[in-house]
Amino acid sequence: MTARHHPDSHELDDWGLYGPKDPEIRWHVDRLAQDHGLRVREIEGLILQALKDRLALEEARRKS
Fold first, then answer.
1. Tens of pLDDT, residues 16-36
2. What does residue 3 show for φ and ψ, rounded to 5 degrees?
3. What is the superkingdom listed in this entry's lineage (predicted)?
4. Alpha helix ranges (H) inside the chain
């Protein structure tokens, strides 16, 4: 990925190693897994789809 300046560059670099800092994300993931039986792969699929949807929305806004 091309390096670009972003105010959260350091945090973005650490994201892959340390994950999200917001404990509420962990709480939701845990509830989906423990209380509702979703597997990690399914939860990651939900997260990935939400991110793709948002990216598509942002790119559509930029084009209009």
1. 899 999 999 999 999 999 999
2. -70, 130
3. Bacteria
4. 9-18, 23-30, 40-63
Asked if 33 contacts 43 with a C-beta cutoff of 8 angstroms, the reply is yes
Query: Helix, strand, or coil here: 33?
Result: helix
C-beta of residue 32 within 8 angstroms of C-beta of residue 43:
yes
- Of 24, 28, 48, the closest CA to residue 38 belongs to 28
- CA dist list (Å): 20 to 11, 13, 24, 64: 9, 12, 9, 31
Residue 53 has a pLDDT of 98
